[in-house]
Task: inverse folding
């Protein structure tokens, strides 16, 4: 298996590790203080990583399309806390957060963004096309909706192998009306495949609001034609995500078939870096940033609950800053791929 | 050490923009993620967020300034523990930005439009001298799948009507009974969905055989075949593999009209990352399908409905397999080379018999594999015959024959005594009427005519 050519020390936390046994029941009680702090850290890592990616893009070090996850961190961090190391994860092109949450190395991710040999795809995939077999992360897909049948196929393979693993298949509200999504949902329900469809509804498919793109905007009900249960979740609240995620994962793991979670979330940045931002008001964006921010929300909860203090949070900030600085440093100094790489990895054995 | 904030680019093509508004002033403490200013171009506006923390020491570009070049320092921040005055005095320590110049010209071995090298094709299978059994192409395909499925539990067959109905063309007869419904799976009529599901299953460690009732319907699944199956190995730097076979009948059947009668050979052969095979005989069908199933890459396996019922001798040995990428000389000759694939191999052989009666000794090459393409075998034949006719059922424009002609220009120009002649389906949607349909598809008489033309006799 290919790895980033320069294998840097992995500095991220084992984000997918299961929490220690915890009391059952909904709500905050099911999450330990340690886990809450790890949520904070992992969300902050994504936030700072993405800010830095935006900066490197602005400096011309990252090319092409670059879709940032800022604002949506609670979705992936909450969901990843509900699965184990062998479960599969797949998503669209807004994928940096998912990779970090899967425990992939920030250096390898950032170096792929800069198109360097130390990147996860040796610089040949870019922002939208990164994978880690090691971490069971299956991409990074650039075609809207294409990851949904593929994620369903991963669940098919899980069931075929006879294990209990599930597939977390993420997609956006923009994908939610793609034909192949419904083709996949039908087969998942028909064959009771262990897949959780996580619709990250950030309210805009590029510049078109859900209301302007979708005849019915209750996206969690879009599996009803196939009998797939669905739930709408506050995707800005990592604990709400965690609670709903556990239920959905248990459902799929038990053999009961697919489950849909519609995460109501918001992206602060444009669709990609070159976004005119004319389709929504500044007030709307500010309202989410100031009143609904998932990281601020959890920070307040940690402090108010006496689970941590300012000094400890400052230490986390410093740790994240170092990881992101190191990743950016690595991504700028890792060499470009050797010209011979142009002709490798086209076919196996050819 | 002060930190300079640079004018960012909103897109790879942006070179300058307007600094529309400052949201901070000297002395403000700035946190990561805080909006510090707004910039504008004719296409977009963007809020610039601070990445580093610090205290604003100096605004270097005034609000409202137009034409600020990308990567110009626009603001200085004093880092923690540094005084604002010191920071403002310090020379800006500009981070290293990538030069936005044109990339250097690629090295010649990469850029030159030189002909693709003739890759050495695997050696041809030895002439079979053992026992053979007479069987139809349909049975050969079924046996190939069954033999491979017996050996490897990760192989499964999915598609419309492949299980209980035994295949729309009865290719999968008996497979459900032998392997059960876990491994022989009827799908809903949703080609895009089940092709993508197959790709996911292949990513997940299985070896799917995905049957399209015909390749006409695979157009619905084209995105998953090309973008997901063919490209992911490359895009993942070799991490991901997609061992999958997409198979089914391709090309014209009989009197089913334009939507159900198209050859997709050149469509798929165009794509790096795919293998494309097109068997003619039952031995081809069996040996190549087994090779396709064992291959770790995505393989497009183009069958032909009109051939399913035709019988041929097939080696009895259960280990019989054919190499991918090797053409077969079906008939030796010295006057003209006729290159064909799939059903057209039979037409070419008929034409060769007719030509023999007229004193022209034709060599007939069965391509078998369109990707990789066995240029070497064809060039060697042309060196002997000096004349070449290409035959395909598909349309002529940008077809396999067009590629073959180009390859011969690059690799066999000095040996050609006449321009390459293409025999192809007519450049029209295939008509339904019996007489028109026959006129639109290549017949052996067309091949005979073309051979006469290149031989000037």
Result:
């Amino acid at each position: 298996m290919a790895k980033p050519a320069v294998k840097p020390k992995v500095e991220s936390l084992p984000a997918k590790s299961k929490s220690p046994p915890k009391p059952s029941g909904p709500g905050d009680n099911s999450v330990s203080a340690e886990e809450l702090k790890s949520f904070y850290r992992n969300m902050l890592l994504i936030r700072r990583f993405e800010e830095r990616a935006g900066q490197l893009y602005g400096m011309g070090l990252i090319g092409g399309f670059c879709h940032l996850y800022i604002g949506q961190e609670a979705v992936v961090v909450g969901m990843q806390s509900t699965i184990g190391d062998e479960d599969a994860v797949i998503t669209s092109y807004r994928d940096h957060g998912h990779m970090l949450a899967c425990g992939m190395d920030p250096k390898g991710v950032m170096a792929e963004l800069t198109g360097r040999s130390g990147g996860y795809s040796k610089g040949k995939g870019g922002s939208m096309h990164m994978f880690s077999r090691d971490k069971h992360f299956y991409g990074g897909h650039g075609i809207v909706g294409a990851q949904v049948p593929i994620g369903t196929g991963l669940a098919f393979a899980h069931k075929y192998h006879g294990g209990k693993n599930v597939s977390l298949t993420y997609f956006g509200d923009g994908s939610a009306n793609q034909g192949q999504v419904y083709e996949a949902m039908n087969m998942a329900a028909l064959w009771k495949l262990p897949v959780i469809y996580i619709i990250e509804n950030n309210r805009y498919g590029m510049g078109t609001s859900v209301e302007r793109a979708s005849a019915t905007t209750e996206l969690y009900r879009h599996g009803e034609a196939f009998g797939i249960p669905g739930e709408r979740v506050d995707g800005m609240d990592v604990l709400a995500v965690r609670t709903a995620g556990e239920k959905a994962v248990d459902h799929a793991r038990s053999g009961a078939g697919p489950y849909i979670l519609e995460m109501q979330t918001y992206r602060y940045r444009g669709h990609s870096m070159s976004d005119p931002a004319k389709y929504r008001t500044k007030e709307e964006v500010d309202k989410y940033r100031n009143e609904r921010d998932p990281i601020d929300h959890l920070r307040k909860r940690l402090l108010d609950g006496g689970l941590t203090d300012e000094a400890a949070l400052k230490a986390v900030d410093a740790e994240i800053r170092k990881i992101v600085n190191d990743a950016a440093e690595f991504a700028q100094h890792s060499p470009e791929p050797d010209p011979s790489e142009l002709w490798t990895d086209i076919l196996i054995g050819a | 050490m002060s930190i300079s904030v640079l004018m960012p680019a909103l897109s790879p093509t942006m070179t300058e923009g307007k600094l529309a508004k400052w949201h901070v002033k000297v002395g403000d403490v700035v946190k990561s993620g805080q909006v510090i200013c707004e910039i504008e171009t004719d296409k977009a506006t963007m809020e610039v967020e601070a990445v580093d923390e610090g205290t604003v020491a100096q605004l270097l570009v005034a609000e409202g300034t137009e034409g600020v070049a990308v990567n110009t320092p626009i603001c200085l921040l004093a880092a923690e523990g540094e005084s604002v005055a010191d920071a403002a005095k310090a020379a800006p320590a500009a981070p290293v930005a990538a030069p936005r110049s044109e990339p250097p010209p690629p090295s010649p071995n990469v850029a030159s439009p030189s002909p693709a090298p003739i890759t050495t094709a695997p050696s041809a299978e030895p002439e079979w001298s053992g026992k053979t059994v007479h069987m139809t192409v349909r049975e050969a395909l079924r046996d190939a799948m069954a033999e491979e499925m017996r050996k490897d539990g990760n192989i499964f067959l999915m598609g419309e009507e492949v299980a209980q109905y035994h295949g729309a063309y009865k290719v999968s007869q008996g497979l459900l009974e032998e392997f059960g419904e876990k491994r022989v799976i009827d799908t809903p009529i949703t080609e895009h969905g089940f092709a993508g599901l197959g790709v996911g299953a292949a990513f997940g460690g299985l070896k799917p055989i995905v049957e399209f009732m015909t390749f006409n319907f695979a157009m619905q699944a084209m995105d998953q075949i090309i973008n997901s199956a063919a490209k992911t190995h490359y895009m993942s730097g070799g991490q991901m593999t997609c061992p999958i076979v997409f198979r089914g009948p391709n090309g014209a059947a009989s009197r089913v009209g334009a939507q159900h009668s198209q050859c997709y050979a050149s469509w798929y052969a165009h794509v790096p990352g795919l293998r494309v095979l097109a068997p003619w005989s039952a031995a081809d069908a069996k040996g190549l399908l087994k090779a396709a199933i064992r291959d770790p890459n995505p393989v497009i396996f183009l069958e032909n409905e009109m051939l399913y019922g035709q019988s041929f001798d097939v080696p009895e040995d259960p280990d019989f397999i054919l190499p991918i990428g090797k053409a077969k000389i079906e008939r030796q000759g010295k006057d003209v080379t006729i290159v064909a694939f799939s059903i057209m191999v039979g037409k070419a052989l008929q034409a060769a018999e007719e030509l023999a009666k007229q004193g022209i000794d034709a060599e007939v090459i069965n391509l078998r594999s369109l990707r990789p393409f066995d240029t070497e075998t064809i060039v060697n034949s042309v060196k002997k015959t000096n004349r070449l006719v290409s035959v395909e059922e598909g349309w002529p424009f940008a077809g396999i024959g067009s590629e073959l002609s180009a390859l011969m220009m690059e690799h066999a120009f000095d040996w050609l005594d006449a321009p390459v002649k293409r025999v192809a389906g007519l450049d029209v949607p295939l008509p339904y009427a019996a007489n028109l349909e026959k006129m639109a598809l290549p017949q052996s008489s067309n091949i005979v005519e073309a051979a006469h033309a290149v031989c000037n006799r």
Summary: The first strand of chain A starts at residue 88 and ends at 90. Residues 1-28 of chain A have pLDDT under 50 and may be disordered. Residues 33-58 of chain A form the longest helix (26 residues).
